[in-house]
Amino acid sequence: GENVEQHPSTLSVQEGDSAVIKCTYSDSASNYFPWYKQELGKRPQLIIDIRSNVGEKKDQRIAVTLNKTAKHFSLHITETQPEDSAVYFCAASFSGGGADGLTFGKGTHLIIQP
Amino acid sequence: DAGVTQSPTHLIKTRGQHVTLRCSPISGHKSVSWYQQVLGQGPQFIFQYYEKEERGRGNFPDRFSARQFPNYSSELNVNALLLGDSALYLCASSRGGMNTEAFFGQGTRLTVV
Questions:
Q1: Contact between chains at A89 and B42 (C-beta distance less than 8 A)
Q2: Cβ neighbours around B83 below 10 Å, total
Q3: Distance between CA B26 and CA B76 in Å, rounded?
């Protein structure tokens, strides 16, 4: 089955600086890669996703890059703000025929220092 | 526009008991997936249902079962509860097929004592 490795487990950056979180996956058949943000005691929220036919996707301060050959993908947050502090999870799945169970990484606790 | 709703929000059970958790997906979504999230870890895939059929199953024992109803709502059942089953159980709703954006409910916090 799929295995997703995520690092770092904790990332502390100064407000205004950029943050990068990296994930690798094992199953070359995976074709869908979402990122979720989870604040303490709340549900995971989808913040951005990318499919395997695209190398990069951007949404305001957030961007995701995908390298299919190396089987890794990354989340980039620019101009970080205090409200970006949360746990971020990457995930991977094969999407097809309605079956799309996600395999998650262990999460990165992002701390934005004022 | 209602999001994914789960009930109950919190539950305390004794070892050996049985529990049923419920999930209502976003209107128009036909796929429901269940995940277990232990404190400090990422969600782990338990089941996926699409059009009322099981389409995927994670590495969980047979004590875990689920079903999806004609209105696309779903139940997760866990028999013979163990202390290790204590976790946040999350339901995710998606349209299914090739569109896999999954949206999570607020979860059910299960504590087994």
A1: yes
A2: 9
A3: 17
Who among A45, A97, A101 is closest to B58 (CB)?
Answer: A101
Q: For residue B26, what is the DSSP state? A: P
- pLDDT value of residue A97: 44
- pLDDT tens profile A61-108: 999 999 999 999 999 999 999 999 999 999 998 765 445 589 999 999
List C-alpha distances in Å: A60 to A75, A90, B100: 13, 19, 22
Strands (E) across chain A are located at 4-7, 10-14, 19-25, 32-38, 45-51, 56-59, 62-67, 72-77, 86-92, 103-104, 108-113
The tokens describing B1, both together, are 């526009």
Out of B40, B51, B102, name the one closest to residue A102 (CB): B102
**CB environment A33-43: b (16+ within 10 A), e (fewer):** bbbbbbeeeeb
Maximum pairwise Cα distance, chain A: 46
Task: Give pLDDT tens digits for A15-50.
Answer: 999 999 999 999 998 889 999 999 998 999 999 999
The whole-number pLDDT of residue A101 equals 83
